Amino acid sequence: MGKHIFYLDNLRTFVIFLGILCLAAGSFLPAPFMPPHYVFAGQPGTITPFYYLFYEFAMTLVIPVLFFISGYFSASNLRIRLFQPYFKGRWLRLGWPLLFAIIIMMPEIAWISARSTGYSAGFFTFLTQRFLGRGFTLGIYGFLAVLLLFILLLMAAKKLNHQALRHTEISSPSPLFLILFVGVHLILALAVYFGLLGLSPQSLSAFQAFFAGLGFQPSWLITAALYFLLGIYAAKHRWFIQGGYIPGSVWIAAAIGFSIIYNVFPYYHVITLAFLSLSGTLGLIAAFARWGNQSSQTLLTLSHMAYPVWYLSEPVLENIMYFLLPLTIAAPLKLILALGLTLFYGYFVYKYALCHLGCFKTR
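RESULT FIELD:
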């Protein structure tokens, strides 16, 4: 890749920690919108729409940014590496943590989540009767499963066409390309939205069970796929290198504008999603390129610990939320307490344990 791109590294760190904040806020979502693997930590009758709006807004930024950066660096690295060592590295980084989470962590998380909403049976009863059936979920580790799938598809594309990832001339995205990109995103989002309205109750139930198991919303999967592809496109056209395309300040203004629209008109999220995803992604890149293009020991430490702390955040957060259930303190205080304990615990586990494991070790 040549020169290290500090602002993309810092943006990745910021977005991962924003994702951890979303996870904490998820325990205070109104019941119909709360993912099945979250512990419901709110008090009945005290939940406000703020948590739902924040969660949806933040995830509309987290997913495209993370998958864009992943697509960009996946294409850049695979272009110059052999298949076997590349896959071995990706499996070590993503595959083994995913398998460990499925086998060890998610059954316990799903069990205490069920207990927080009135389920009273023991762990092994839950495991055999619910989790190993329609109650199965990957939780937040669905991100790892989806990313690993995209990487395998990228490897297959290069296998079929060895020139698929070859660099082209340095170029900026044309307005027509960006309009078509947003248009495709909008059409797919609307197709899924209206398609779900037309499903029979049995088909809708099966559809919801699949995505609950994956730990992903349908709109997230569409966004993740499109922005992973956009990241590959950016790598092929050599964005961000010396003389390459870097989003300008106009994208910061666009991101602010669509952020306001997205939150003021929540009933039109299915329409504004595509516009906020693109403007938010390019706007954040522009902001970090302008104000976040630096490196320090603190930033380097945060970058190294971001993924391990995110990986630990779900089991730690959900267990803390579960044990905070009897407390009648205000939801914001409960959220701050749980988030603070999670980051504190995650830092020390990373520093003294996870950083020595191959899947979390950084060069």
